[in-house]
Amino acid sequence: MIVGIGVDLVDIPRFEASIARTPKLLGRLFTTAEQALKPHSMAARYAAKEALIKALGGSDGVHWTDIEIGAEASGRPIFALSGETATTVAERGITALHLSLSHDAGLATAYVIAESIPASAAPGALA
Q1: Which of 104, 101, 106 is CA-nearest to residue 47?
Q2: How far is 74 from 46, CA to CA, in rounded Å?
Q3: Distance (Å, whole) CA 96 – CA 27
Q4: Which segments constitute the 4'-phosphopantetheinyl transferase domain (predicted)?
Q5: How far is CA 7 from the centre of its chain?
Q6: Is there a contact between 55 and 47 (Cβ–Cβ < 8 Å)?
Q7: CATH class held by domain 2-118
Q8: Structural contact between residues 64 and 83, judged by C-beta atoms closer than 8 angstroms
Q9: 82-85, long-range: CB within 8 Å, 24+ apart, which pairs?
């Protein structure tokens, strides 16, 4: 069952200017691995983190560096959550996160769907 949907759009040149103006943002927003990426990829990951917060219904218990966007062998983007953010997502009953990223024409976008298993469909649930 879908419990949340989030979408975000980032203007890449504006994002790059913000990072250039305030370099400390990199350490506050991105993991060490993400900081090594090209600006358009970082902008897409920023959008993904914003979209995740929207899908969760708010930022309580969510920390930027507890969210890392990686990729499966196929290239499909995935979330790797840790710390309090992983705990928060689990406590909200979310069992799957779906992520789509794109960047083109100076814009980066991300779309997130958060799912949970309805109590009636969970293993061992009473009918």
Answers
A1: 101
A2: 21
A3: 27
A4: 4-90
A5: 10
A6: no
A7: alpha beta
A8: no
A9: 85/61
Residue 115 in marked binding region: no
Structure tokens at 29: 């927003």
Q: Check the CA dihedral 6-77-15-83 and report its sign.
A: positive
Q: Reading across the β-sheet that carries 107-115, which strands appear in turn?
A: 2-11, 107-115, 96-104
Contacts of 75 (CB under 8 A, 6+ apart): none
To the question of whether residue 50 is assigned a binding role by annotation, the answer is yes
- Please give the Cα distance from 46 to 10 (Å, whole number): 8
**Residues present in the chain in total:** 127
Blockwise average pLDDT, block size 10, the chain, 127 residues: 97 97 96 96 98 96 97 96 97 96 96 87 54
Say what the pTM is: 0.90
